[in-house]
Amino acid sequence: MNVRQRIATTGACLVLAAGSALASAPLASASSGSADALSCSARGIQGSGGHYGSAITCYGGSFTGVIDCRRFDTGYVYRHFGNRAPSGGTSTVWCDLDAGVINAYGTPS
Length: 109
Prior knowledge:
The chain is about 20% helix and about 45% strand.
């Protein structure tokens, strides 16, 4: 296994570990005093093609799932938006291939 493959494998393991941590902690996307306050949780997911993503479920109003992704090779960070979902629904969001989720949350829509 060459150095690039080891770095990519280590990065993938770290992203999966971070995704597991995200899944166990509830996320909030609005301040507690706001009328648009959401109570959200995120679960890390992996697609068949090797894509990483997050399934975000929120209560408190309709929302859109949002994830911040980091490329394994360059470290570039970018944001993807998921589908709009009703309260109690799930918004699924995916990173590009060769990138992992570093943050996941819901935003009121």
